[in-house]
Amino acid sequence: MTPSLDCRVECLPLAKPFRISGHVFAGASAAVVTVSGGAFSGRDGAAGVHYFGTDDPDVMAADVCDFAQARA
Question: What is the value of pTM for the model shown?
Answer without folding.
Answer: 0.72
